[in-house]
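Readers of this paper often ask what the protein records in our data store actually look like. An entry from our holdings is shown next, in its original layout:
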Amino acid sequence: MGGVQEIMRHRIRAAWVERSPVLPSHAKWGTSVKTRPEECSMSPVITVHHLEMSRSTRILWALEELGTPYELEVYKRHRKTFRAGPEIKAIHPVGRFPVVVIDGQAFAESGAILEHLAERFGALAPTDPTARVHYRYWMHFAEGSLMAPLLVGLIMDRLRTGVPFPANAITGAIGKAVNKQYTWPQLADLLSAVNHHLAAHAFFSGDTFSMADIQMSYPGMAAIDRVPNAREAYPALRTWCETMKARPAYIKALEVGGPILPPSRKT
């Protein structure tokens, strides 16, 4: 049906309700909306709007780690464009994933959602001052530094795989040149710093698993999966990724939300 996505509703360890407590189209983002009285008695009512094969898997993982019930709305990507449809704009005006609605209030941006959950539930955030410094740094490093060159690499890959013949010979050559001159050197510097930290610490906040590990999971796993020779060049990061993938809550998140990464096409 063109760009219209299929939306699947799942029941995730919570009582089924007829209507998710989401913001109506006339409500402004960030405002609270009253739900039915029986919903208000539950503490809290959480609905996750999740795009398949995306960074929003981190939110499912966090909720599984916290052991709190939630409802899940899964949005399918368009099979040709791989883009999300416009439906999420009814929940949040920017129209990006993930969006989480907690007791009628919408939250967006993965890092902000994870920090809110940590504060709300009093878990998965260190209290030690030194660990807190590491925690805050890596929470912001994930999207502020590491994701940008990874996305450039993905776009350059699309210049090769998403353009028809014979133009793809030209666009593919451009993509490879950009990756060689910019993407891979940038990632080498960033991933070396990540690997250095993980060689000295079990987790990103130090000795304890935290939301920082969840936030770093997408770029960290994407790097190991997509960056040439990353598995050999960054052994501490590779080991950390394997440790994260073995966590029961991570496994459960993938069971309910699907794989975190789209199929790999290394250039």
